[in-house]
Amino acid sequence: MREEQFEAMHQEARGQTQEQQPGVEYAMKPEPIYDDPDYVGSGKLTGKVALITGGDSGIGRAVAVAYAKEGANVAIVYLNEGKDAEKTKSLIEGYGVKALKIAKDVSQPENAQAIIDTVIAEFGQLNILVNNAGKQFPQDDFLSITPDQLKETFETNVFSMFYLIQAAIPHLHKEDTIINTSSVTAYRGAPTLIDYSATKGAITTLTRSLASSLIEKGIRVNAVAPGPIWTPLIPATFSKEKVESHGEDTLMKRRGQPSENAPAYVYLASRDSSYITGQTIHINGGDYITS
Asked: Which superkingdom heads the taxonomic lineage of this protein's source (predicted)?
């Protein structure tokens, strides 16, 4: 029945676009599934504090909800999507934990310390950093990628991770975790998303290298590489035709939902993954192996 629901939503989502990036979830029809009613928390993150960039919508919202179900207090960072952020804050609080929303541009280096300081001031600790914010600008012609586009894509997708991790490390301790959002495009490439794919490749290598660097502190670093997932970034960046066919070239013949990614982020944040670092979990409906 669950699979039938996802397939029905895939058909309903055909043809819609948005005029702004990174896009807003409240305008999507149907709205992405961010809370799987079959997922029941078991206290895996009780007493923990998580910070999620891009936490207002999409995969970030789904992770925030799952973390709340597991007992974590959650801070979300977003750019300017205030309506989505307020809903996510309400969803988190609905599970009896504390929520904090922070409107900051993570691509700007001066904001990283301010974000971390705000979290520490509110919660007194930080245990889980999820670097999830991202942008993409499809271009049919590689020569159309301008220096400004290249800079914006790398500043948001990669540089922001360096800034936040550097600001967070003094507050992270043994058994704390860093989780980065990579992408299937880092592994199979994407001819119209070359700069975006390059950032995701950098994130994959950052994850591996940082895992080696922080293991002596007992801090684990891993990544999740989603495939075609129904998030605001899709209608905000692709044409109607691309939105219609989004995910149909996977083995499962459909796009995925944010809620289908969230359990992996819970796993990597909890002691269930205590012997895992420097690794990437692939959630893509069989996308990569079809290439």
From this structure: Bacteria
At a CB cut-off of 8 Å and minimum separation 6, what does 48 contact? 67, 71, 72, 73, 127, 128, 269
- Fill in the DSSP letter of residue 159: I
Residues involved in catalysis: 196
pTM: 0.92
Check pLDDT > 50 for residue 129.
Answer: yes
HSE-CB of 255 using CA atoms within 13 angstroms: 23
Average pLDDT of the residues in 224-252: 84
Pairing state between β 177-181 and 128-131: parallel
Q: Which is nearest to 125 in space by CA: 70, 45, 62, 69?
A: 45
What are the distances in angstroms from CA 52 to CA 76, 103, 250, 255? 5, 12, 28, 23
Reported as a single tens digit per residue, the pLDDT across 186-196 is 999 999 999 99
Cα dihedral 102, 60, 80, 134 sign: positive
> What gap in Å lies between CA 256 and CA 2, rounded to an integer?
12
Quick check: helix, strand or coil at residue 179? strand
pLDDT digits (tens, 9 = 90+) for 59-108: 999 999 999 999 999 999 999 889 999 999 999 999 999 999 999 999 99
Two tokens, residue 266 = 């819970």
